[in-house]
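new request in #modeling-help
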Amino acid sequence: MAENAWLLIWLPLFGFLFNAFLGKRLGKGAVSVVACGSVGLAFVVAVLITLQLNGLPEHRAYAPLIPFTSPSHPWIDMAGLKIGFGLMLDPLSALMALIITGVGFLIHVYSVGYMKDDPEYARFFTYLNLFIVMMMLLVAGDNFLLMFVGWEGVGTCSYLLISFWYTEVENAKAGNKAFIVNRVGDLGFSLGMMTLWSIFGTLTYRTADGKGIFDVIMASANGKGLDATTLSLITLACFLLFVGAIGKSAQIPLWVWLPDAMAGPTPVSALIHAATMVTAGVVMLTRCSFLFVLAPDALQFVAWTGLATAFVGATVGLVQTDIKKVLAFSTVSQLGYMFLACGVGNFSAGMFHVTTHAFFKALLFLGAGAVIHSMLGEQDMRKMGGLKKRLPKTYLVMFIGTWAISGLLPLSGFWSKDEILHSASGDPQFGGIFYAVGLFTAVLTAFYMCRMMWKTFYSEPRFVEADLYAHAHGNYLDSPDPVQHSHADAHGTHAADETGHAAHEAHADGKIHESPASMMVPLYILAVFAALFGIAFGPSHAFEKFLEPSLAPASLSKLAVGHPLFNIYVGYGLSTVAAILGIGFAYAIYNSRRKTGEWFSEETKTKWEQRPYSPPAFLYDTFVSKWGFDAFYNFVFVKIGGVIANVLWKVIDNGIIDNLTGGLGYLAGGLGKIFRRAQTGYVRNYALVMLFGAVVLVAGMLATWSKLTN
Amino acid sequence: MPILSILIFLPLIGAILLMAMPRSKDVETDTDLSETSSRKVGLNAVSMMAILFAFLNFVGAAYLFSTFNQNYANTDIAGIGRHLQLIEDHTWIKLGNIEVFYRLGIDGISLLLILLSTFITLLGVIYSAHTVKTRLKEFMVCLLILETAVIGVFCSLDLMLFYFFYEAALIPAYFLVGIFGSEKRVAAALKFFIFTFAGSLLMLVGIIAIYGATGTFNLIDLTNPNSSAAKALHGMDGRMLGFMFWAFAIAFLIKIHIFPLHTWLPDTYAEAPTAGTVVLSGVMLKMGTYGLIRLCLPLFPKQAQESIGIMVTIAIISIIYGAIIAAAQTDIKRWIAYSSMSHLGFILLGIFSFTKLGMMGALIQNINHGISTPMLFFLLGMLIERRKSRDFKDYGGLKLVVPVLSTFFLLAALSSIAVPLFNGFVGEFAILLGSWTSLSVGFVRTTIAATGMIFSAVYMLWGFQRIMLGPVTKPANKLMPDLKPFEWAVLLPLTAMIFWIGMFSHFWTQRMDAPVETLMSQEGVGSTGDEDLPAVNAIQRATIRKYHEEHPNKPAPAQGEPEVFARPGGGTPSGGSPGGGGGSVSPGTPPTGTAPAPTSSPRPNPLTTRPVDGMVTPVTPRPTQPANTEGKR
């Protein structure tokens, strides 16, 4: 099967093309079947490939991306830059393929229910399938440039899906922000690739004949090691590549785009902004473990960035009121954990957390989507409450998700998070700090997740059901009629509009209801995985062993080796205590405030507003303002940048440069006016000028002549 | 069959026939595209004739492309003349002992540009046939004459002939802007004419100076280092050669609107009619880049080396300056005009990175720019046609109204942003990689230039948002019709090209391998002969080693410790190095022993690979082995 790995990409690609060109015409049924079916089939292929990997030498296979060609079939081949369309299947890419197509398939199925009223159903699934294509390229390509194709490709899909409901300017702006902030990271990624190319003269990871980057590193390290300059350049490359990861995985300081990205439909948040795309940074670091273990400085930077992001993300998550924003900041924070794991050299722990996080965070997002769906589009937790009785099934899956992410035995999150904390405490220099902050963040995590549960499910309802109105999204819902009429001819949007309105009203009349089966079944499946994946593969180290062939061997590592602070069982105990602490706090605070669902009363908040520099007020403000990142960027890049652009344009370009060059024109015109006077019409004047000219000419010739003869 | 002459003069014949035809009746009423009934009348005879000739020429160019022998090499000739084929050579003007030849010939570089010119002109003619309402005949005549002149430029191997065609292109372009443009067309046309004409005159002075020194206009001779003409040329006073280089260079830099010679650009592009802007940006502009590559580099290799500092600086300024100003525009055509300036900055950077990869990237980016920018201008033209406004404020939310047009717009924008698998990426990445590995540009300046990646996303997406996304605020926008068949006909081929180049770039670049190889390995332009390692690698390693030596407190390279950089399988990973042997270097010997170590720099910087006299040292990294060692593809 491995030689047919191109199916992993071509199946969703077929879905993409089908939905893009025929989707609108063939209707929602065909779109759903093709979109879900192509990803489902790709999942089957991924399973078959994974099963086959064990029997292969070094657990690795090379396959062409273009069917029936060789893996080195050229994409770019110019002046020595040779990039092939090839795939590399190894445990890392197989694992990611399973997550992407598996979780992706479930989310596709979920979307069938979630998006069923949207008039632009086909466009949604077109983008979703394209996303799967790009994500597969990212993880399965056999060289950095193909990874970059996927890298920017998923960024583009993310842009398209965030601004899916583009008639709201805010959504469009969120899409722009995501793309542009990611571009900053992509710049780092490309410069990193250039550095690698200038060291190795290739961008392929490994090749069958041992000429890839990692092959060269392995070969030279098995000899007498790499010289200092090469190591310096590798360190530079690692830093630059990590800039790419910072952007894509929403780490400090480029994390600002991810919360805004929640503007997209909820399945998108689950698939792209939780389960798969944002973990691409971790995947990339793991893929580059051969490089990073040679660059301890870069790894330390990774660890600190991850730690800071985990902590800061969790603090901001404490104060969010939008159910999706809580999960968004939780994602930021959990990604920080994954980078912490990579930073201390335990890449498999990072990937383990990627995997469990994909399950429980997709579960939480989809669960939140079900809540939002049931609440007719309401996302504000302050207007929820009491949903435990109304939505018992949704409550159950959310409960499992919260349990898993809080890191309480025995669900998945516990095993992966504990593995990370355990290895972080083993850092010889900063093990203590890493462990302490990591553990404290775990308390915060448990707290904000339980806070969300209380606000949504346990507290008293804070809405009047009859007053609920549909916040239904959709580009054709609120637009004035003329547009639709002008449209009726070509695109059938008129009909779509009516559907939208009909849905609108049907919803508003009904009661709060559980979501349809197409949404609930994926949730149950994810819940099973979120619950059991960790205990199945964590304690036995089966996951670690599976991933090992993709990782740099310990012999290559230049990292200093330390010892974990505690015995693993003490660690288990401490993690459990941390989780219980967080849950206990939440219980103590919110259980007695079921009425309002708020920790702080309105009076307290008013008091804070009056005295913004009192410690609790300051802390609250800091968290609410996301530590000031957004304001800072807005000021520097939007405000000052706008001023600079206008100054450059109006003052420098139109004012100075145009006038300087235009001034030459005036000069010519002025000279013309002067010389016009020479055109007197008197022959004697012309003769005089001619004589003068002739004299000058002869003199010049003589001068040149004498120069030449000398 | 003199196919080049046919390609050059076929449009001219078409133009003459058109002139002989009776005037088509002007469309008096302002036919609004929004009326579904408009333009039901078929194309008139003038349009048919123009389309026929443009199409015939495109077919001719495609035939030329398909039969082109990319492995052709005339080993008797050194220099770029080696790969020139389909030579036509006749005496044209004979005045005393001054002889001007009608001498044509092409290599892979000109081939692609000819194909591009016929392609874009055809699309321009098709589009104009449906949209130009007054003096359609004259419009078509101008477009066809322009095509003749431009193809003439790409084929000329005689400096005088080159100059003739180069100037001839200016006249129809002037009329296109001055007669068919919008309100301020006359001022814009005048500005455009004066600027480019001033540049051309400088070039004429340069050409005459070359003739004065060598007695020939023959480009093949002049660029053949073994010929007497080239020896006479390079025997001239260095300062004089410098002036001559700049005379040529400024002419071309004006044409490609590089900072600070760009002020004609926004006015001209904004005022010109749609097809005019399209051919200006897609076709005429290419004469500038082509001139730099075909004339400046091979005629004045040493002077070109010396100019790297200035060229790279203005290239980087253009990239960033153009991008920032593009973001601030309120006029949709000026928006793309300034973005074009940014793109041309990349191309100039690629050319003057003096690496094969950078040059190749610049050449393919030249083609890419000729596809994505015209496509954007077409799309803007379609919007303006519908809305009669160039102001961003008058648009907004159009995706809801014209979803198909909006999709094409997004594709063109992504191509311009250079997202991978779109055409822009291949060129941009090759340019940046070439310049990153170039001794004469180096890490720092490449990084600055690469921020253009971010800026392009900023101005493109923001502009796209302002036109296409958000709610429909203006009532006038609500009745906009989506694409008409002729607009599909224009946009589909361009979109196909975007992906064809983006995904299968090898198909297009392979024809340019040989000429680029020859150009960049020419003495003066070419590199030192470090065949052992990728030279760039060697140079940068040497620089960093030097840094370590001068900063002993930092982790220094292990002295005396064996430095081994094993390359399994022998040779460099980039393929088949003959001398590499692949193995280890003996202990104590730096693996870069054969590399030119950079001369000492007053402020060593590990990230700067530019040595102090890097401007004049003819060292060019050769990241790769010559393509021809691997057999012709």
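bot summary: The CA atoms of residues 326 and 335 of chain B lie 5 Å apart.
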